[in-house]
């Protein structure tokens, strides 16, 4: 398990029954930019892409917003021939909450101290079929329709989390194993919730890497340099 914590937020990542942990998280020192990535596939190249993406996203100046951070991640991944591909969610703290941008099936949730509310929408074949009134097969849940390498800026997902609010970012190894109510119950407990979420995902038989980043405090924008702190294998 790889883990880090600081006042107001904590993150945890566990490998699970995979050859490589291809998840990564990064947070800028002033807690203005948060990023979580999940590599596409099970390879060192996918893990490298995830680390590059979160590092570049959290170096992006936070006033530029989450879409600019995602574009910075995309530029960094595309510039590295040794990197594979990944999906990514970025949240940027502002004066009145968070701005969120994403590609793929990583997620962001708003937390009010009692309930979780999903603010992202999966970019997957399964979600496409649901949107068109058709039942997807289980395999479609894992087929993403956008990624850091491939998405056009017009395909980026975008959402707002009005403050004050907590924030939860997760890889699919967490949210596709645990239900919304189970995740909310774990967040209500007085413990390192990121640890609790990832441990519970594995205990429930999760077959993927499981990564969570939980921000407990209301967002406070800060004029700080954004040097990333990443958690990855």
From TrEMBL:
PPM-type phosphatase domain ranges (all copies): 8-217
Gene3D superfamilies (UniProt xref): PPM-type phosphatase domain
UniProt superkingdom: Bacteria
SUPFAM superfamilies to which the protein is assigned, alphabetical: PP2C-like
Name this protein carries in UniProt: Serine/threonine protein phosphatase
Species name: Amycolatopsis bartoniae
Lineage: Bacteria, Bacillati, Actinomycetota, Actinomycetes, Pseudonocardiales
